Each structure stands twice: as C-alpha cells, then as structure tokens.
C-alpha cells in the first residue's frame, strides 16, 4: 500500500506546475546551447578556411616572386631547391610549376592525385594577367592557390 502512495505522489509531482516549468527551462537551455554550439562550429570552420586561403596566397606569392629567374631559365634544379622549402609546410599538399607552354617544370605531391591539372589551369591563366593577381579554387578536400610568375615591367 505504501508503494501506491508514492506512485500517486510522483504522478501528482509530474502534473504539477513547478515540474512543467522545470522541464521547459531545461529544454530551452538545451536548445540554446545546441544552437550556439552549431554557430560556433560554423564560425570556427569558416575562420580556419579563411586562414588557409591567406596562407596559400602568401606562400604562392612568395614562390612566384622567388622563382622568377628559375622559371624563365627553366632551371629545374633551382626550382627544386626553392620548392623544397615550401612543400615542407604542413598545409601544403602539392606544388606545381609550369612553363609558358604549360610544360611541367616542377611537380610534387604529398597525396597522390590522378587529375591532369595543367589543362584546367590553362583556362584560368587567362584571368591572371600579372603577378599581383591571385585565384583560389575551393574543392571539397583542398583549396588551390594560383599565382602567375610574370616579370612585371
């Protein structure tokens, strides 16, 4: 008999106004934390992507400026020495340097890829008239940073 008395009191408690307010408060807090967590995750991923693009632009610009002589002389040994310092960066997955005729002068990859990138870059190169221009191509797994190597007058 005593067990049924506790059951009645528990059911009365569940139906009480205070219990319903408590459950509503817990639900609102949980939903608010979920929304703010999702917003934070979105902002952090966007910030990380922006930082990768900035770093890619800096590295591509540095590489373009430091390899001008080696590219126009088509000196593969000098290009290898310049590129080795860049490819050791953690975020850099691959590096390609092409001649004016789109012949590969230097290419290396940390992660193998089967794409023939020279053909796709040929169309994009028309959008990059001087060494101060920059193009990013965002793909699901990589962000490609393109900068032409041009001797500016």
Give the helix/strand class: alpha+beta
- Helix tally? 5
Specify the overall morphology: rod-shaped
As laid out across the biggest beta sheet, the strand order is 1-2
The biggest sheet amounts to:
2 strands, antiparallel
For the CA atoms, what is the radius of gyration?
Answer: 29 Å
Uncertain segments are none
Short description:
The protein is α+β, with helices and mostly antiparallel strands and 153 residues long. It is built from five helices and four strands, in the order H-H-H-H-E-E-H-E-E.
Q: If you had to describe this structure to a student in words, what would you say it looks like?
A:
The chain is α+β, with helices and mostly antiparallel strands. It contains 5 helices and 4 strands.
Topology:
Layout: H1 2-15, H2 17-66, H3 68-72, H4 76-87, E1 94-98, E2 104-109, H5 117-124, E3 135-138, E4 143-146
Antiparallel strand pairs: 1-2, 3-4
Overview features:
single chain, 153 residues, alpha+beta, two-stranded antiparallel sheet, 5 helices, 58% helix, rod-shaped
């Amino acid at each position: 008999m005593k067990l049924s008395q506790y059951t009645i009191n528990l059911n009365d408690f569940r139906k009480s106004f205070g219990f319903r307010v408590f459950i509503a408060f817990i639900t609102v807090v949980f939903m608010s934390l979920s929304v703010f967590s999702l917003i934070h995750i979105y902002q952090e991923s966007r910030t990380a992507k922006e930082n990768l693009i900035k770093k890619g632009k800096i590295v591509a610009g540095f590489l373009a400026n430091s390899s001008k002589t080696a590219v126009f002389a088509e000196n593969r040994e000098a290009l290898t020495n310049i590129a080795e310092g860049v490819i050791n960066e953690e975020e850099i997955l691959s590096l390609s340097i092409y001649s004016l005729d789109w012949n590969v002068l230097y290419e290396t990859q940390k992660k193998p890829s089967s794409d023939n990138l020279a053909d796709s870059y040929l169309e994009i190169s028309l959008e990059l008239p001087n060494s101060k221009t920059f193009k990013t191509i965002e793909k699901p797994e990589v962000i490609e940073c393109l900068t032409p190597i041009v001797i500016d007058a």
